[in-house]
Write a structure and sequence with these properties.
Aldehyde Dehydrogenase, Chain A, domain 2; globular; 16 helices; Aldehyde Dehydrogenase, Chain A, domain 1; binds NADPH dihydro-nicotinamide-adenine-dinucleotide phosphate; six-stranded mixed β-sheet; alpha/beta; 2 domains; 20 strands
Amino acid sequence: MMPSARPIRMNKDDPMRPNAQPVASHFINGRYVEDTAGTPIPVIYAATGERIAQVHAATPAIVEEALAAAAAGQKIWAAMSGTERGRVLRRAADIIRERNRALSELETLDTGKPMQETLYVDATSGADALEYFGGLAGSLTGEHIPLGRDWVYTIREPLGVCVGIGAWNYPTQIACWKGAPALACGNSMIFKPSETTPLCALKVAEILHEAGLPAGVYNVVQGMGEVGAALVSDPRVAKVSLTGSVPTGRKVYAAAADGMKHVTMELGGKSPLLIFDDADLENAVGGAILGNFYSSGQVCSNGTRVFVQKGIKEAFLARLKERLSTGVVMGDPLDEAVNFGPMVSERQMEIVQGYIAKGVEEGARLVHGGGRAQREGFFLEPTVFADVTDGMTIAREEIFGPVMAVLDFDTEEEAIARANDTAFGLSAGVFTRDFTRAHRVIGALEAGSCFINSYNDAPVEAPFGGSKMSGVGRETSKEAIAHYSQVKSVYVRMGDVEAPF
Ligand code: NDP
């Protein structure tokens, strides 16, 4: 916990776990650093609205310290062998798994997501990324290209100092999804978490260094957009990876272009989920629940436009309503019986409430929820609108909350055309028992991360990322290596040079 804050409430059964809480605002050059001259950023527990900690935004001096440390640390790190680098990442993965419960509690306090989720999805997926990219680090090589007597060889080189900027919905996972491939390739990283969830990335940095990372290779600085902007525009930075909204993505991409920097953009979505008449009803309802209400709907890839074929529509709505009425357990997210938490912040709750009001105003049929829960904290009821039409605001704009829009359709061609009629292209899903159709439909949908008879699975082995306005580049999987390294090509002439004069 931060020195100026009230204590973070930890699990009373096991309150004394070592290193459970970060001890200062920033982590630079292998240690925690504080500078109270920076703007205070309160950390609010979304389930109660109480302030549980406070960090300070990075001052220009802190930003400079992080950049200098990252530039120096990167040289030391890149000089190590891939196998040595991988060993550090895999050791960090082991430590994260050992401390999963404490880290999950911190994630819950940072975001308000229920322990029922954070115990299985957050620190664990961060550990998966560190283990996976740690495993790849020793085999990142170039190629030998024979050209008769001459030949070319390529060298896969790190980019240098990378900046990661995170959203608030998955703070540990995002810190690891960006950090693990960056570090595997021999880069260093400066990570700026969202000001809404500043705590978890500090623990990632602490654990990486405990695992043997040289000082300066993974740094965390706090702050609002301006700190991110200062990092992006610095000439020492070679690459920027942002997870955030499309408007922020535009700004960061433009700033990066000014310095001709590499970018990865993981941005928003308004993804379609197509449910055909022949789908397994229970699985389709389950997929729609996962794709709209997990993390209280604060997931970028959510299938928030649920296109249901007319023959199954009323059965789908009836079963969905039944499962939402009987299955949702709202309450303190630290209680493991709870499966539905609050919005991350009061502001996000108000944004979502605005969209719900818009849905009603524009004539969608509210079939479930729609209100703020009668309890402390920023809780909204899981909300379902039916009879949504393509032009409605709730069918066009990313809401980032527990609001499902159900639209209906007659034919496959019509559903595909309407599903693709959006500027976003992050994810898409289809539920059908007809496998020929499943592959045909997925082939026609304009999206980067797709699902057949499932929704929102994100194993580290699979590429994740969007097309169209949802972003550029891919995180996770071998694909990420290309986005954190560059190839040097070397022509080797074995004979004499034939010059024209
Ligand atoms: P924002 O776009 O508001 O912010 C993202 C990050 O960028 C924050 O850390 C923010 O700082 C920072 N930032 C803001 N302005 C600038 C700037 N000019 N230069 C540099 N950095 C800046 O997104 P949210 O945090 O509200 O997250 C929700 C969004 O993220 C949704 O649109 C969601 O779809 C998307 N997202 C995408 C994912 C993907 O993988 N495709 C995954 C998760 C979320 P601060 O907020 O502290 O001011």
